[in-house]
Design a protein that fits this description.
Order of helices and strands: H
Structural class: mainly alpha
Largest sheet: none
Shape: rod-shaped
Distance between the termini: 154 Å
Number of strands: 0
Strand content: under 5%
Number of helices: 1
Length: 108
């Protein structure tokens, strides 16, 4: 092989190597770009999921508060009714006591 042919072959090999390196760099850059886009999408979906979870938690908390509020109001109404009945019974006793004392005071 002549010197020119050898140099030509070396030049072709260098060009092929450079082409392969350029293609590898292009593939690497595309993979990096794709990975970044996927990471952005994952973060976006994470934010959406986080927001939804917080809204669900808030709604669940509100429902628990409403149930507890209803229970407290119902208990309060029952207590108030019981107190009113007890007070009414005491009024009857007080009236009887006052009548007895009044009759005693009148007869003395």
């Amino acid at each position: 092989m002549a010197k020119n042919e050898i140099l030509s072959e070396i030049k072709k090999a260098e060009e092929n190597a450079k082409k392969m390196i350029d293609e590898a760099i292009e593939i690497k850059n595309k993979r990096i770009s794709d990975a970044r886009a996927e990471a952005r999408e994952i973060l976006k979906q994470g934010e959406i999921d986080s927001h939804k979870a917080s809204q669900d938690s808030f709604k669940s908390g509100e429902e628990k508060i409403l149930v507890e509020k209803d229970r407290v109001l119902k208990d309060g109404e029952q207590d108030a009714l019981a107190m009113a009945q007890k007070a009414q019974a005491n009024v009857d006793k007080a009236v009887d006591y006052l009548l007895i004392e009044f009759e005693r005071a009148v007869h003395e």
